[in-house]
Fold:
Amino acid sequence: MKKILLGVVLLAAQVSFAQVSIGVRIGPPPPPRVVRQSRPPGPDYVWVDGYWYPVGNRYQWHNGYWTRPPYGGARWIGPRYDGDRYFEGYWEGDRGRFEHDHRWDRDRNRDFRGDRDREHDRDHH
Structure:
């Protein structure tokens, strides 16, 4: 009886340290869209390529656009997919890492997009 009780206690201890995770796999994103890039609106603008990002069980396209980095010398590291995981894009440089703030996408003083791209963020994440 003691052996059975010890076995149950050890099994319960193992289960309590186990991690459970539930996720939805939607597979890899579609190929990137081919877009003709316009001229930069000014010397301090950087082009951010368009990309697919997960929304629920599907992918949504985010159009590329011109934007100003959060500080001089920062470079854009685009979003990427590694196996089943999606990693957000971010800015990186000598002042550290800055996560992309999607409110920037709507700031007319910061970013520049042509008329055809203005509606892309209507339901953006």
